[in-house]
Amino acid sequence: MRRFVRAPFGWALAAWLGTATVLAAWPWSRDMVEQAFLRPLVLMLRPAEGSVFVGALRPISNEAAEGALRNPYSATAEHRAEGARLYRRYCFVCHGATGRGDGPVAGGALAPADLTSPVLQQRGDGYFYAVMRNGVRNMAQYHEMTGPRERWLIVLHLRELAAQARAAERQRAATPSVP
Fold this sequence. Notes:
The protein contains seven helices and no strands. It is mostly helical.
Protein backbone atom coordinates (compact mmCIF):
# COMPACT_ATOMS: atom_id res chain seq x y z
CA MET A 1 0.00 0.00 0.00
CA ARG A 2 2.83 2.36 0.82
CA ARG A 3 4.33 2.05 -2.66
CA PHE A 4 0.98 2.90 -4.25
CA VAL A 5 0.75 6.18 -2.28
CA ARG A 6 4.27 7.35 -3.20
CA ALA A 7 3.98 6.75 -6.96
CA PRO A 8 1.14 9.24 -7.64
CA PHE A 9 2.79 11.79 -5.37
CA GLY A 10 6.09 11.36 -7.22
CA TRP A 11 4.43 11.77 -10.60
CA ALA A 12 2.46 14.79 -9.43
CA LEU A 13 5.60 16.40 -8.01
CA ALA A 14 7.54 15.76 -11.21
CA ALA A 15 4.71 17.18 -13.33
CA TRP A 16 4.42 20.26 -11.13
CA LEU A 17 8.18 20.92 -11.19
CA GLY A 18 8.32 20.39 -14.95
CA THR A 19 5.44 22.79 -15.55
CA ALA A 20 6.94 25.40 -13.23
CA THR A 21 10.32 25.16 -14.96
CA VAL A 22 8.80 25.57 -18.41
CA LEU A 23 6.64 28.50 -17.35
CA ALA A 24 9.57 30.24 -15.63
CA ALA A 25 11.89 29.82 -18.59
CA TRP A 26 9.64 30.53 -21.54
CA PRO A 27 9.60 32.97 -23.32
CA TRP A 28 11.02 35.46 -20.88
CA SER A 29 14.43 33.89 -20.48
CA ARG A 30 15.02 34.12 -24.24
CA ASP A 31 14.48 37.88 -24.48
CA MET A 32 18.07 38.87 -23.71
CA VAL A 33 19.53 36.13 -25.92
CA GLU A 34 17.54 37.17 -28.99
CA GLN A 35 18.33 40.88 -28.89
CA ALA A 36 20.08 42.16 -31.99
CA PHE A 37 22.63 44.18 -30.06
CA LEU A 38 24.22 41.22 -28.33
CA ARG A 39 25.27 39.26 -31.39
CA PRO A 40 28.19 41.48 -32.51
CA LEU A 41 29.82 41.20 -29.10
CA VAL A 42 29.86 37.40 -28.93
CA LEU A 43 33.41 36.84 -30.22
CA MET A 44 35.23 39.72 -28.51
CA LEU A 45 38.25 37.65 -27.53
CA ARG A 46 41.71 39.18 -27.52
CA PRO A 47 44.51 37.16 -29.12
CA ALA A 48 47.10 35.56 -26.88
CA GLU A 49 49.98 37.76 -25.79
CA GLY A 50 52.82 37.67 -28.33
CA SER A 51 50.75 35.96 -31.04
CA VAL A 52 51.22 37.03 -34.64
CA PHE A 53 48.41 37.14 -37.19
CA VAL A 54 49.29 35.71 -40.56
CA GLY A 55 48.54 38.25 -43.25
CA ALA A 56 47.60 40.97 -40.76
CA LEU A 57 48.80 44.54 -40.74
CA ARG A 58 51.45 45.57 -38.28
CA PRO A 59 50.21 47.52 -35.28
CA ILE A 60 49.54 51.15 -36.18
CA SER A 61 48.07 53.95 -34.11
CA ASN A 62 44.79 55.54 -35.14
CA GLU A 63 46.50 58.87 -35.87
CA ALA A 64 49.31 57.30 -37.91
CA ALA A 65 46.79 55.27 -39.91
CA GLU A 66 44.93 58.45 -40.82
CA GLY A 67 47.78 59.63 -43.00
CA ALA A 68 49.15 56.26 -44.10
CA LEU A 69 46.07 54.27 -45.13
CA ARG A 70 43.74 54.99 -48.04
CA ASN A 71 40.43 53.31 -48.78
CA PRO A 72 41.00 50.99 -51.76
CA TYR A 73 37.26 50.65 -52.45
CA SER A 74 35.24 53.11 -54.49
CA ALA A 75 31.73 54.15 -53.50
CA THR A 76 29.84 51.94 -55.95
CA ALA A 77 26.22 51.02 -55.23
CA GLU A 78 27.27 47.46 -54.37
CA HIS A 79 29.99 48.61 -51.95
CA ARG A 80 27.68 51.14 -50.31
CA ALA A 81 24.94 48.53 -49.84
CA GLU A 82 27.37 46.05 -48.30
CA GLY A 83 28.85 48.78 -46.09
CA ALA A 84 25.35 49.65 -44.85
CA ARG A 85 24.67 45.99 -44.07
CA LEU A 86 27.94 45.66 -42.16
CA TYR A 87 27.27 48.93 -40.31
CA ARG A 88 23.90 47.58 -39.16
CA ARG A 89 25.59 44.41 -37.92
CA TYR A 90 28.53 45.91 -36.03
CA CYS A 91 27.95 49.64 -35.47
CA PHE A 92 24.21 50.32 -35.27
CA VAL A 93 23.80 49.12 -31.70
CA CYS A 94 25.95 51.96 -30.34
CA HIS A 95 26.03 54.62 -33.06
CA GLY A 96 22.41 54.33 -34.23
CA ALA A 97 20.89 54.31 -37.70
CA THR A 98 22.14 57.79 -38.54
CA GLY A 99 25.58 57.52 -36.90
CA ARG A 100 24.86 60.15 -34.26
CA GLY A 101 25.64 57.92 -31.25
CA ASP A 102 22.01 57.28 -30.39
CA GLY A 103 21.81 53.52 -30.82
CA PRO A 104 19.76 51.16 -28.62
CA VAL A 105 22.57 50.63 -26.09
CA ALA A 106 23.88 54.22 -26.12
CA GLY A 107 23.63 56.52 -23.17
CA GLY A 108 25.24 57.15 -19.87
CA ALA A 109 28.59 58.72 -19.19
CA LEU A 110 30.42 56.95 -22.02
CA ALA A 111 28.16 57.83 -24.94
CA PRO A 112 29.32 56.69 -28.40
CA ALA A 113 30.76 59.27 -30.75
CA ASP A 114 28.63 61.14 -33.26
CA LEU A 115 30.21 59.84 -36.47
CA THR A 116 28.59 62.60 -38.52
CA SER A 117 30.14 65.46 -36.53
CA PRO A 118 32.29 67.89 -38.52
CA VAL A 119 35.26 67.22 -36.22
CA LEU A 120 35.26 63.49 -36.97
CA GLN A 121 34.45 63.97 -40.64
CA GLN A 122 37.67 65.96 -41.02
CA ARG A 123 39.53 62.76 -40.18
CA GLY A 124 40.85 60.60 -42.99
CA ASP A 125 39.46 57.19 -43.91
CA GLY A 126 42.50 55.50 -42.38
CA TYR A 127 41.57 56.90 -38.97
CA PHE A 128 38.11 55.27 -39.01
CA TYR A 129 39.63 52.03 -40.28
CA ALA A 130 42.17 52.01 -37.45
CA VAL A 131 39.57 52.87 -34.80
CA MET A 132 37.54 49.82 -35.87
CA ARG A 133 40.69 47.72 -35.85
CA ASN A 134 42.26 49.01 -32.61
CA GLY A 135 39.33 50.39 -30.65
CA VAL A 136 39.31 53.73 -28.85
CA ARG A 137 38.18 54.74 -25.34
CA ASN A 138 35.03 52.70 -24.65
CA MET A 139 34.82 51.19 -28.16
CA ALA A 140 36.09 47.63 -28.41
CA GLN A 141 38.48 46.32 -31.05
CA TYR A 142 36.69 44.75 -33.99
CA HIS A 143 39.70 43.25 -35.78
CA GLU A 144 38.77 39.75 -34.59
CA MET A 145 35.33 39.99 -36.18
CA THR A 146 35.89 42.09 -39.29
CA GLY A 147 38.40 41.82 -42.05
CA PRO A 148 40.08 44.72 -43.83
CA ARG A 149 37.53 44.71 -46.66
CA GLU A 150 34.61 44.89 -44.24
CA ARG A 151 36.18 47.77 -42.31
CA TRP A 152 36.80 49.77 -45.49
CA LEU A 153 33.22 49.22 -46.64
CA ILE A 154 31.93 50.43 -43.28
CA VAL A 155 34.08 53.56 -43.73
CA LEU A 156 32.32 54.16 -47.06
CA HIS A 157 28.98 53.95 -45.25
CA LEU A 158 30.18 56.37 -42.56
CA ARG A 159 30.96 58.90 -45.27
CA GLU A 160 27.49 58.39 -46.73
CA LEU A 161 25.88 58.94 -43.30
CA ALA A 162 27.82 62.18 -42.92
CA ALA A 163 26.68 63.36 -46.36
CA GLN A 164 23.06 62.59 -45.42
CA ALA A 165 23.45 64.51 -42.16
CA ARG A 166 24.89 67.54 -43.99
CA ALA A 167 22.03 67.45 -46.52
CA ALA A 168 19.45 67.28 -43.72
CA GLU A 169 21.13 70.21 -41.96
CA ARG A 170 21.11 72.30 -45.16
CA GLN A 171 17.44 71.50 -45.65
CA ARG A 172 16.63 72.55 -42.06
CA ALA A 173 18.54 75.79 -42.55
CA ALA A 174 16.73 76.53 -45.83
CA THR A 175 13.29 75.84 -44.37
CA PRO A 176 11.84 78.99 -42.81
CA SER A 177 10.71 78.57 -39.23
CA VAL A 178 7.07 79.23 -38.52
CA PRO A 179 6.45 81.46 -35.48
